[in-house]
Specification:
The chain is mainly alpha-helical. The chain has six helices and no strands.
Length: 182
C-alpha cells in the first residue's frame, strides 16, 4: 500500500514536471513568435521606405544616395533576435523617416506626389502594427517571466535552464509630452 502511494506521488510529480515544462516551452515560443512578428512589421516599413527613396531619386540624387545608405543598414529581426536588435532596427528606421521628412520639406512637389502620400500612409500603418507587436511581445514576456519566477515552477525552469527575457523599452524621446504649440 505504501509503495502504491509512493508510486502515485512520483507519477503526479512527473506529470506536474512535464506540464510545467510544456507551459514554459509554449510561453518561450510565444515570445519568439511575437519578436519575429515585430521583424515582419519592421521589414514592411523598410519596404515602404525603400519605395519612398525611389521617389526621392527623381528629385535629388544626393538625398537618394543618403537614404539608400541608411536603408542598407537594414537587418532581419526574427525569433532568435535580441531586444537590442529590435531597438537598433527601430532607431535606423526612425533615422530614415527623419531623413525622408527633411527631404520632403525641401521639395514640396514630392509631398504632393500621390505615390509619396500612399507610401507614407503605409509607413504609418506599419508603425502602428509595430507598436501593437511590441505590446504583444512585452505581454508574452510578462507571462513567460512570471512562470519562471514563481514557486514552484521556478524549480523546473531552473533545472531546464529557462531564463527570463528582456522587455522592449519605450524610447526616451517618446515618453515626453509632445509640444502642443501651433
Amino acid at each position: 500500500m505504501v509503495t502504491l502511494i509512493i508510486i502515485g506521488v512520483l507519477v503526479l510529480l512527473v506529470l506536474w514536471f512535464i506540464s510545467v515544462q510544456r507551459n514554459l516551452v509554449n510561453r518561450d515560443e510565444m515570445c519568439k513568435n511575437s519578436l519575429s512578428q515585430i521583424g515582419v512589421q519592421q521589414s514592411s516599413r523598410w519596404d515602404a521606405l525603400t519605395a519612398i527613396a525611389e521617389l526621392v531619386k527623381s528629385y535629388n540624387e544626393h538625398e537618394y544616395k543618403t537614404l539608400k545608405d541608411i536603408i542598407a543598414m537594414r537587418k532581419t529581426v526574427n525569433g532568435g533576435s535580441t531586444t537590442a536588435d529590435v531597438e537598433g532596427q527601430e532607431k535606423a528606421i526612425q533615422s530614415t523617416i527623419a531623413q525622408i521628412n527633411a527631404v520632403a520639406e525641401q521639395y514640396p512637389a514630392l509631398k504632393a506626389n500621390e505615390n509619396y502620400k500612399t507610401a507614407m500612409e503605409s509607413v504609418n500603418t506599419y508603425e502602428n502594427q509595430v507598436r501593437m507587436s511590441r505590446m504583444v511581445y512585452n505581454d508574452s514576456v510578462t507571462l513567460y517571466n512570471r512562470i519562471i519566477r514563481q514557486v514552484p515552477s521556478n524549480i523546473v525552469a531552473g533545472l531546464l535552464h529557462f531564463e527570463t527575457r528582456e522587455y522592449l523599452e519605450v524610447p526616451q524621446e517618446k515618453t515626453a509630452m509632445p509640444s502642443m504649440k501651433i
